Amino acid sequence: MKFFEAKDIVREHFSRLKFTTPMLIHSLTEGRHQLETHANFWWMKKEKDFSLVVDQESYSITTSTSNGLNLPKFKDARGMIWKEDASATRFDPVAVGKTEKQDLDILYGTDDQGSPEVAAIDDTTLYIYPPKPQSTYVMRLYHYEWTDNPENTSDDDLLKYFGMALVYASIAWGYEMVLKDLQGAVYWKTLLGGSPFGRGGVLAQMKKENFKRGQQDQIDFTPRSGPGRAQRRRLDNVQIYR
């Protein structure tokens, strides 16, 4: 589905109610945002290269202030690696998001020096430990970002595989926020996420596909029922709700 096709469906539904074009665009924007709150989907994956600053511990993630990463659409971290400098060919891992900042503040002294070992994210700030890097180490942050709707004649993976999910979410938002018709929104929310919400509908299909892509090339999904007995389970029978 191209973006203009999704717009046409939503516009056609609300045309008799004189849904203005700015409100139409806003409903589609909010619809996408609501979908992306339910999981870190594969189309949201991004990566960012940056360099540490000598003796600087903290870096803004969403702005460029004080050597920040300038990722205004940052949602969540996936992983982090580092190398000595731009000419180095091998990266080493940095544990990120696994330990809280208050715990790392106890483990490391305020004047500890060395190469990056672990990182913590507190609100929209990235903290590197040891807190006193002594070189401009090259870093790479793997993360998820909130995404925007494409141009009119384009699509992306959300529209390509689950275009009606965006339509349902946008129409439900229109009923709730513009028409103030909560009962009207229930029908479209049921199409989107089933009843109770999140346990069915297109949203469950999205989560299932996201799970399958996350497991691809990682493990063989063959739970065992006893010693030497392998029992295969079909992924499409596995309920993925969260």
TrEMBL record:
Protein name: Uncharacterized protein
Species this chain originates from: marine sediment metagenome
Lineage: unclassified sequences, metagenomes, ecological metagenomes
